Amino acid sequence: MKKKHKLPPLFAAVFFLFCFGMGLLLLLLPKQTFSATEKRNLEPFPALSFASLADGTFTEKMETYLTDHAPLRRFFVALNAYGDLALGNNGSNGVYLGHDGWLLEKPFARENHFDDNVTRIVRFAQKTDAPCAVMIVPTKGSVYTEQLPKNHLRYDDFEKIAAARETCEQNGLRFIDLRDRFLAEKNTSDLYYKTDHHWTSAGAFLAYEELGKTLGFEPNASSAYSVEKTPNFYGTSYARACYTLTKPDTLEVWRSKETGGKATVITAENGGETTADNVFFTDRLTGGDPYTVFLDGNHALQTITTDSGGGRLLVVKDSFAHCLVPFLTEHYGEIVTVDLRYYKKPLTALMNETAFDGVLFVYGADTVAENKIVLR
Fold first, then answer.
1. What pTM was computed for the model?
2. Looking at CB atoms within 10 Å, which of 17, 219, 271, 301 has the fewest?
3. Domain residue spans of the chain
4. In the predicted model, is pLDDT for residue 79 greater than 70?
């Protein structure tokens, strides 16, 4: 008979102490409700009931709870990411580790909602009397191709945006095409954050200038803004990839020297309303997600009133609009923003209640590809 191999006593003891120590830390350490590095809420301890046990909900949520609150979780996730990198995997959790500290989201899937969403926007625009314009922001991987790792999937952004422009213009919609401008000026300053999928305020400013050409207003010069910088900013790309050796970005807020961003911002949420007096929520800069300094982050409906004396604009958007809208407040007396991921009422009802001088759709290309935009 072959002898059974036994674990060396020292190894077995170390393994036992490790498991025991991790379990003890899990019990004793305080539990967080939000992960600042991952930009998300953590799973709370699940409620135990006969129903949750019977349908498996308790077990499923308990597994997520243990994963979210595991001691040294971030360390082990990072260790796995760099281990995969050493084995030849050039990305982690859908994010490439590029050159010069760039973290770039992998291309959206070939099978996606892009064309269908453009068609939905066109059909909706044809049912309204207000003139409509569309802006689709290319992903940073499609713009900063030189920063991508040697082996990467192909980005279809530019082809998709070109087709979207043709479809929109053929059906009477105005289209703000950022491709040429971004390629021409991408080396003058970073147009996207290295650790976040969003554009920087410098990128949003270029879009603002292009919007002026299409919507008919005269953009302010860049010298009309003071730039307030917040160092040590880690964004969504960093949170997803967990390449913890990546250097942080510097987040910039471009504040109008004339108005200072002053406006009445009414946020409707959960049946109530909150009011602020500025489009920049500077207290968020010291919180878990500094990018929410722009319009306080994601909300279903916000109404921004200014003293500019301009018209009324409806912005249907994702989070790319957040650092763009402050530039637009210089030209519109009222801007209403709607995020259809959270706004559950028909958009047509809102437009029937309020007469808008124009409608602007602002979406990142990845949102158009990966999410069904429901317009009704």
1. 0.83
2. 271
3. 9-71, 109-370
4. no
